[in-house]
Amino acid sequence: MNPNTTLAFGGVMYPDVAQEIFINVAAKDAPLTAILLGTQRERETNRPEINWYGQSLSSRTTQINNGAGYAAGATVLAVDDGTVFVAGDLIHVERTNELMKVVSIAVNDVTVTRSFGSVAAAALVDDDYLLNIGPAKKEGDTNADMRTNATTKYTSYTQIFQRSVQLTGTLDASVTNTEQERARLRKEQMHEIARDMELAALYSNPGEYSTGEVRRSTSGIMSFATANVADANGTLTKAEFLDFLSTVFAKGSQNKIGFAGPAVAAIITSLWSSTERTTVQSTVVGLIFQRIATPWGNLDLIVNPHMTGTTHGLELLVVDPDECEVRPLVGNGKDRRLKLLEDTQAKGTDAAEDSWFAELGFTWGNPDAHGILSNIQVAG
Q1: pTM of the full structure
Q2: Is 239 helix (H, G, I), strand (E, B) or coil?
Q3: Domain with CATH 3.90.1690 in the chain
Q4: What CATH number has the domain spanning 61-135?
Q5: Which end of the chain is more exposed for a tag (fewer CB within 10 A), N or C?
Q6: CA distances (Å), origin 92, targets 95, 110, 133, 337, 351
Q7: 133 and 62 Cβ atoms separated by less than 8 Å
């Protein structure tokens, strides 16, 4: 091992220094966590329970729900989802180009004025697509009814992470032929706590356990991202992959990150020609990834070393980083972000001990901004 690789671990490591080292040294062990920290998706919490509300923009489309369809003069229409409209909205019938104005809504029965624009009313058929294109307000009109978007309250917790660095007093005072042993062990245990944090970010479930002692576990993305889940059934085709991506990119940002094990990453990469993907090295965390240009935005594909086994080793996790945050516990003058606590050995012990320590959690925004594609075994 090159002695220079441990030089950064010889001094005091307060949170800002420790985080910078984490981003530069441990990103390969913890790519999701390092990316969030490196792109400053971090927000302090002053209590261990973290609550947030997930909310997406309202849907704009629904369909006719009547097997017999409707004649051109019908003004009361059954639809799949009446909450798409409020009184005063204009409906565009995609198949016929007719405009209708919403008069009132009773659950999923919508009363309309037909042929609101210049296109004549035409017969409607079952499953005709209806698009809400917004209101056309009359002069001097009052405020319209508010369309409310459903919100869901989610809960995560800060989790305590700790890894010890231990060596005898004799070894601490000795000079080895390769490098300073305490610094080497500090580096080794930083990699371990980085892996602990990454595995929690991926696979933990939020919980608070107080039988005899209080322990908390944070929210992992794999148990949270349940809105867009699909099964490749062993063989992944490009068309199937695009269909999955169209759903994931429908909500959230136009830049998403895909995490997968080496085998799945190779399968996905093989579906795209060299002109459709670009090899990029992140200037923030130094990770190399494949940037795939899709019709809806960029997907940055990164190998995650912890996506292994007969289940997670066959999955692609798509994350919207704009929805994600690392939440360190900071309050009452105490900063519990990642740091190195020095000389934590018991008084009078002929040993040296340090401790990597962090108390933090993860929050993931809206579940429908992420997605999981499972059972990817071969490219089709």
Answers
A1: 0.81
A2: helix
A3: 3-55+156-379
A4: 2.40.30
A5: N
A6: 9, 14, 7, 52, 76
A7: no
> What residues are paired with 79 via a beta bridge?
64
Select the more confidently predicted residue: 129 or 177.
129
Yes or no: say if 144 and 135 are a contact pair by the CB < 8 Å rule.
yes
What is the tens place of the pLDDT at every residue in 186-233? 899 999 999 999 999 999 999 999 888 899 999 999 999 999 999 999
Reported as type and span, the H/E element at residue 25 is helix 15-25
pLDDT tens digits, residue range 4-46? Answer: 456 568 667 788 889 999 998 899 999 999 999 999 999 999 9
State the Cα–Cα distance between residues 181 and 191, nearest whole angstrom.
Answer: 16
Query: Which distant-in-sequence residues (6+ apart) come within 8 Å of 57 by Cβ?
Result: 149, 251
Q: Where are the beta strands (DSSP E) in 169-296?
A: 207-209, 215-217, 229-236, 255-260, 277-281, 288-294
Nearest by Cα to 187 from 359, 354, 358: 354
| The CATH classification of domain 3-55+156-379, taken from the options 1.20.120, 3.40.1620, 3.90.1690, 3.10.50 | 3.90.1690
The candidate with the shortest Cα–Cα distance to 50, out of 158, 202, 198, is 158
Sign of CA dihedral 24, 280, 289, 370: positive
